[in-house]
Specification:
Helices cover 34% and strands 25% of the residues. It folds into two domains: 8-183, Flavin prenyltransferase-like (Rossmann fold, 3-Layer(aba) Sandwich); 193-282 and 308-401, CoaB-like (Rossmann fold), CATH 3.40.50.10300. Helix 1 (19-31) runs parallel beside helix 2 (50-57) and helix 4 (93-101) crosses helix 7 (136-147). The protein has 404 residues and is an alpha/beta fold. The protein has helices at 19-31, 50-57, 75-81, 93-101, 107-114, 130-134, 136-147, 173-183, 218-229, 257-268, 312-317, 320-324, 339-350, 360-363, 387-401, and strands spanning 8-13, 35-40, 85-91, 122-126, 151-152, 156-159, 165-169, 193-198, 203-206, 209-211, 233-238, 250-253, 273-276, 283-285, 306-308, 328-335, 354-359, 368-375, 378-386. The strands form five sheets. The protein has an eight-stranded mixed β-sheet with strand order 12-11-8-13-16-17-18-19, sandwiched between helices. A five-stranded parallel β-sheet has the order 2-1-3-4-5, with helices on both faces. The structure holds cytidine-5'-triphosphate. Cytidine-5'-triphosphate binds at residues 197, 257, 276-278, 280, 282, 309, 311-313, 331-334, 346. Residues 197, 257, 276-278, 280, 282, 309, 311-313, 331-334, 346 line the site of cytidine-5'-triphosphate.
Length: 404
Amino acid sequence: MNELIGKHIVLGLTGGIACFKAAELCRALIKEGATVQVVMTEAAEHFITPVTMQALSQRPVYGSQWDARESNNMPHINLSREADAILIAPCSADFMAKLLHGRADDLLSLMCLARPLQTVPLLLAPAMNREMWAHPANQRNVAQLKADGATVFDVGQGDQACGETGDGRMLEASEILEELIAFFQPKTLIGHQVLVTAGPTYEAIDPVRGITNLSSGKMGFAIARAAREAGASVTLVAGPVHLPTPRGVTRVNVSSALNMLEASVQHASAATIFVATAAVADWRPAHAADQKIKKDGSGEVPQLTFVENPDILATLAQSPRGRSGELYCVGFAAESQDLLINSQSKLVRKGVPLLVGNIGPATFGQDDNALLLVDAQGHKELPRASKLALARQLISEISIRTQV
Ligand code: CTP
């Protein structure tokens, strides 16, 4: 919440059925603290009324370059100078073609052309039929608009208003919001490949029972999101949790510690940073029964024996790439007491350059946390805040330590 406080967004609508999603987007932007100025093309007004958008944005909507409400009669200049970004959602194929050629025969295109290139970014959320999206002319336009500095979001996939199925739907309002928030984050990890483990593991006893723990995965998912926001390409190896995958993050679902080790080793070969947040089970049943273990009526209880799981963090930290620093490894320590001492000894035991301590019972399942960063130089507290806010601070600390 309040991710966009202080930001002024010009929300442009062009003609497309996805205009109905722009209403929800406008609301979401305002909920996050942004101020929103809506500008609509004539085509957009066929799909949704300026009245709706005015009510949601709490400001009069602009549509014409001849709008006399501006005392200098230059809405294209006045509106674009105040913006922290111009976001066009939906952006039609026709409007992209127009932008590409620098045409300026309506207020929105005129404003995009007249915007100060260096200070007012242009973000486009395309929306169109799948054939239009895939057409070479349109794909050429997308590529050229990107080359000209615009940020063009992906399109969604699925059922289209025309009855066809494929690529070209506009992203959902919540997805565009996540992209916009990410856009404003500092790009401190460009060129990095980040691998994150998150969540609990599940160690089977038999086909219907197993041992797991209370880790929610929220901290690891927040770190994956923050790393992607910072410009890294991110792989998230997740134990069994029901969290949505952060946008733009590649997720690999695993179950047991052995699965997690295998996936992590595989993806670590290309990674430059590894952050181990997973609450990996320390032990697993020595033998998982093939069939459900049944009560036999004798009152005897099954005797479980355990073997130790491999340590994923130590394995990667002690690998040749981990030792040389090519793979910068960050460990987490979930403790119940003596956070500093335990974190310091874990730093040494795991052989990692950075260890992040937290109090397990105070954080498992919560939306906020407090972290203690421990490295060879000393320690630093990151006071209680939302997990996403802490994840961004941690990513910033990691980026400082991995600068070459
Ligand atoms: N870790 C791991 N593989 C394991 C156990 C732990 O990768 N088999 C990682 C965790 O993801 C975390 C760090 O090691 O980054 C420390 O985990 P933690 O559970 O706090 O410590 P343990 O090594 O299990 O030690 P202990 O249970 O004695 O505190």
